[in-house]
Amino acid sequence: TVKRLGGNHYTFYSEDMNAEGYKRFILRNDLEKAIKEDQFIVYYQPLVDIDTNKIISVEALIRWNHPRFGMVFPSEFISIAEDSKLIIPLGEWILRAVCKDYTRWMQLGFSEIKIAVNFSGIQLQQMDLVDSIKAILDEYGLNPNFLILEATENVLLQNTEKVVKDFELLKAMGVKVAIDDFGMGYSSLYYLKYFKSDILKIDREFIKDLSTNLISSQIVKSVVNLSNDLKLNLVAEGIENKEQLNCLREMNCKFGQGYLYSRPIMVKELETILKMGMCLPAV
Ligand code: C2E
Ligand code: MG
Ligand code: MG
Ligand code: MG
């Protein structure tokens, strides 16, 4: 059977498809409609100053509240959205949702908080990426200063010159750029040289066994020093326990994110925390 998908996309559904393939098939079919019907929810995960527990920024992490499957995580639909190019309208939907939330936070008096938004490779290849970001910020009359663009290393490999140029334009506008999942890509040091990013997020892979694995701890220590030399703000991702945090403190790693501080939370819950003084409880 051939089933009609959104736009001009067709896909095949066969009776012997396994459960996972079937779910993918349904998600692919439903994606375009889901964007129109606002079935997505932005969760926010705080990023804190390790010394003070102050929330410096929050990372927008998208979830799909699917009418049939319930909460669906990005690992299950971002690649589908990329394959169908629907990641472009989905990315625009996410940026608009973030702008709406930031507008409210400004009114509540939290204008200093920054919001990090993940961009996938397909979005970075978009010819009018910078104009489309600017147009959405203008719709809401927002100064781009609050926005951080997060991109994982491997998505920077294609069309390097175009992406380097776009980052420069974005930075001139006031948008900050973060390299996500640092250390997991193919040429991590190359990115540092060419993509003049503001923030480096060292991947959870190096944090998870930080307190027990000498290699991980030596790598993190070196990346802390490298970041200091390059004047980059280093963030440790995926901090889950006190032992990891103690190691990071000893190494003078300045910023952290992870379940120990907070899981990604709904906007109402975040606003409650912000109203209580923008600090997370000491850990
Ligand atoms: P990421 O940008 O590296 O985001 C971090 C992921 O790690 C998030 O998963 C977060 O919930 C999870 N995480 C945070 N702290 C911890 C921790 O202490 N332990 C563990 N085990 N995990 C932790 P999530 O939300 O499922 O997102 C997965 C990936 O999907 C993201 O990785 C990002 O690459 C992508 N993604 C999420 N939201 C968006 C979006 O709006 N647009 C695009 N293009 N990609 C997105
Ligand atoms: Mg990220
Ligand atoms: Mg990451
Ligand atoms: Mg990741």
From TrEMBL:
Protein name per UniProt: Bifunctional diguanylate cyclase/phosphodiesterase
Organism per entry: Defluviitalea saccharophila
Source domain of life: Bacteria
GO molecular function terms attached to this record: cyclic-guanylate-specific phosphodiesterase activity; diguanylate cyclase activity
Portion of the parent chain present: 161 to 443 of 443
EC number, UniProt record: 2.7.7.65, 3.1.4.52
Domain EAL span(s) in chain numbering: 24-278
UniProt keywords, alphabetically: Hydrolase, Nucleotidyltransferase, Transferase
